[in-house]
Structure formats: structure tokens, C-alpha cells
Design goal:
Strand content: 15-25%
Main location: membrane
Keywords: Cell membrane, Lipoprotein, Membrane, Signal
CATH superfamily of the largest domain: Response regulator
Order of helices and strands: EEHEHEHEEHEHEHEHEHEHEEHHH
Structural class: alpha/beta
Number of helices: 12
Membrane topology: Lipid-anchor
Number of strands: 13
CATH topology of the largest domain: Rossmann fold
Number of domains: 2
Distance between the termini: 30 Å
Subcellular location: Cell membrane
Family: Belongs to the BMP lipoprotein family.
CATH class of the largest domain: Alpha Beta
Radius of gyration: 20 Å
Largest sheet: 7 strands, parallel
């Protein structure tokens, strides 16, 4: 049985998705799960008064300069389009016992659409049954469609496709013949990133080895930095790809210290850090594998307004939908040889057209096949 058929049994928790506030009416509102403050009127109705265009995003924490902030642009756009959006920062995994209450508060306030990342999938599936009049969106996740209720929609990204191309980049840029992919936590979605990356590396140069490790948290940059320094010292890794949320900052710090290259994820992390208080971090980031969360959420709610068939199913988005990709900016062009850039561009065209089918974690029959892939490329 394919792993995609097992998704209903697995909570595919990934980087907690945090969005900037987008409030209806006079301005934007962000709510912290601990504060008790809300964007709703005292009477409990969504701020705009238009229940059918009210969205409550249950998210983790803002400011990761990665997956979370990628969705922020979508919320800004939706507000400008007339949607009443409220973003609630529910906190990290240490606040997990309060996540369900946070969602219930949003429902009580009159928000019709409840949207959250795969981290909250189990809670959403429970509440979808208890509140059939509401509609729920789980993004960055997949499951057997026969088990998805009619008031739930999934948005799933082909992160393996974007990761394949940056895997080619890593293989083309390494001088030591060893590259690394380091993650925040292991779960099926993250394993899909890793699978695509390894296949990109191997298809570019089968002699290049791949080190893979997890720090066990999305919010431990210090631990990530130490991990990368160790990999560079003991295994000679010289190109590092991070899929680690807030922990990813530590990877960039290690690359600055070691003089090695880095690859970001989800958002244009070069641009983020170039304009930050730590601009030196930008100067090691060759590119970032993009997961255009904001664009996909805007497109999804445009489909909802149009009455399209999006409920009770997995809405799959890949390279051909501009849902994933990589940053092709001036820094990338200046530092990556033309030969490597041409190979990545060729793969982009082939993937989008369907000529190239990138292997996915969900193609494996079981976890042992994925582990065999990891073992086959280890130094």
C-alpha cells in the first residue's frame, strides 16, 4: 500500500504555520492564544459581519522568515479583497493542550472558515464533525480522500518537485562531494522534501553523498548551528539545505562561520535576511526552495468564491501551479555557474510539463524504502 493511503493514520505535523493578521473593517488584528483578546465584536460575530467571508487562521508564531511568513502575504491580499481575516497565534508545541480551545473560541466568535496547517490536522478533523455548519481547511497535508468530510478541504504542495531542483544546485556547488539536508522534525511532509532533494542530488551527480539529520524542533537555532558545524567538521559537508522553520537560522549562522553555502526554504530567505539586523546571513544563501503558501491560499479562496469543487478532497499544487519553485535572483545568478542554472531551468520546464516525474515520499510502499534511500546516499 502506498504511503499516501496511510496518511489518515499519521499526523503530518510540519512547521507551524503563522500568518500576519488581516482584520476586517478598519484594520488588521492578531490574537495571541494566551491574551484572550479577539478581533470580533463583543456580540461574538466576525468583525466584518459577513460570516461567509470570515476566516480564522490558527497559527503558531510569527516571524520565522520562512514557512509562516510566506503565508502572511496571502492574508494581506485576502484582506484587500474584502475578506474578514483573523490570525490567532496559538503558540508552539508546548501550548498544544490549548490548541483546540483556541479553535473553539474562533468558532464561537462567528468565524466561518477555520484554516490551519497540518500540525492541527487531528483537532480540525474532530471539530469538523462537531461543527458541520463551519468549513475547515488543512494546508500542507494530504490524506485518503475517502476519509475527508464534506466540510473539510486539504491543500497539498509538491515540495518534492522544488526540492529536486535545489538538490541539483547542491550537487553542482559542492566541492567536497558531501551535502546536507537538515530538518526541524521528521514527518511525512518533511520526508517528501528530503526525498526530492536526494533525487535531485543523485540525478545531477550520483557520486555526491547526502547527510540528513533532524534537530527535533522548529525553534532551536542553536542546536541546528551545532549540528551543521559538526557535519562540516566530521563529514566534510559544504552545502546545507534547511527545512527547519525557526531552527533554520542556526544553519545559516553555521555556514557564515564555516564559509559554506546554504539553501533556504519556503520564502526568499536571502531577501529576508538582507534587510534584517543580520544581513551577513544572506550572503551564504544561494537560493531558497519556494513554497508559495500565500499565493495558494489566495487562489483557494478565489475558488471558494467561484463555487469550485474544493471540499472533501485534496487540492494538489505543484510546480505547474507556481505553488513551488526556487528563487532566481541576482545573488543566485552571480554565484551559481551557468551550467548549474541551465540544468535547474531544464528540470523546471520538464517537471511543469509532466515530462519529468519526481519521486515522492508518498511513492514508497513503507518507511523502510525511505530509509533505504537515506542509507544509499550516506557518506
Amino acid at each position: 500500500m502506498k504511503l499516501k493511503k496511510l496518511m489518515a493514520l499519521t499526523m503530518a505535523g510540519v512547521m507551524t504555520f503563522s500568518l500576519a493578521a488581516c482584520g476586517g473593517g478598519s484594520g488588521s488584528t492578531t490574537d495571541s492564544g494566551d491574551s484572550g483578546e479577539t478581533a470580533a465584536d463583543e456580540g461574538g460575530e466576525a468583525a466584518s459581519g459577513d460570516v461567509e467571508k470570515s476566516i480564522a487562521y490558527i497559527v503558531g508564531n510569527l516571524g520565522d522568515k520562512s514557512f509562516n511568513d510566506s503565508g502572511e502575504t496571502g492574508m494581506v491580499q485576502l484582506r484587500e479583497m474584502g475578506w474578514d481575516c483573523k490570525t490567532i497565534e496559538a503558540g508552539d508545541e508546548t501550548k498544544a493542550d490549548k490548541w483546540e480551545d483556541t479553535m473553539l473560541d474562533a468558532i464561537d466568535e462567528g468565524y466561518h472558515f477555520i484554516v490551519a496547517s497540518s500540525t492541527y490536522r487531528d483537532i480540525i478533523m474532530k471539530l469538523a464533525e462537531e461543527y458541520p455548519e463551519n468549513q475547515f481547511v488543512v494546508f500542507d497535508d494530504s490524506m485518503d480522500e475517502s476519509e475527508i468530510p464534506d466540510n473539510v478541504a486539504f491543500i497539498f504542495y509538491a515540495q518534492n518537485e522544488g526540492s529536486y531542483m535545489v538538490g541539483q544546485l547542491a550537487a553542482g556547488m559542492t566541492e567536497s562531494g558531501v551535502v546536507a539536508v537538515n530538518v526541524g522534525m521528521d514527518n511525512p511532509v518533511i520526508s517528501d522534501f528530503v526525498t526530492g532533494f536526494i533525487n535531485g542530488v543523485q540525478d545531477y551527480d550520483s557520486n555526491v553523498k547526502v547527510v540528513k539529520a533532524s534537530v527535533g524542533s522548529w525553534t532551536e537555532p542553536a542546536k541546528m548551528k551545532e549540528l551543521c558545524l559538526t557535519q562540516a567538521r566530521d563529514q566534510n559537508a559544504d552545502v546545507f539545505y534547511q527545512v527547519a522553520g525557526g531552527s533554520g537560522t542556526g544553519l545559516f549562522e553555521a555556514c557564515v562561520e564555516n564559509g559554506t553555502w546554504a539553501i533556504g526554504v519556503d520564502s526568499d530567505q536571502y531577501a529576508y535576511y538582507k534587510d534584517s539586523e543580520n544581513p551577513e546571513l544572506a550572503d551564504v544563501i544561494l537560493t531558497s526552495m519556494l513554497k508559495n503558501v500565500g499565493d495558494s491560499l489566495v487562489a483557494f479562496f478565489e475558488q471558494v468564491e467561484a463555487g469550485d469543487d474544493v471540499w472533501g478532497k485534496v487540492n494538489r499544487l505543484g510546480l505547474k501551479d507556481n505553488a513551488v519553485g526556487y528563487v532566481d535572483n541576482e545573488f543566485f545568478q552571480e554565484n551559481v555557474p551557468q551550467e548549474v542554472r541551465d540544468k535547474m531551468a531544464e528540470s523546471k520546464e520538464k517537471i511543469a510539463s509532466g515530462e519529468l516525474d519526481v519521486q515522492s515520499y508518498y511513492d514508497f510502499a513503507d518507511e523502510s524504502e525511505y530509509q533505504a534511500l537515506l542509507d544509499s546516499v550516506a557518506p
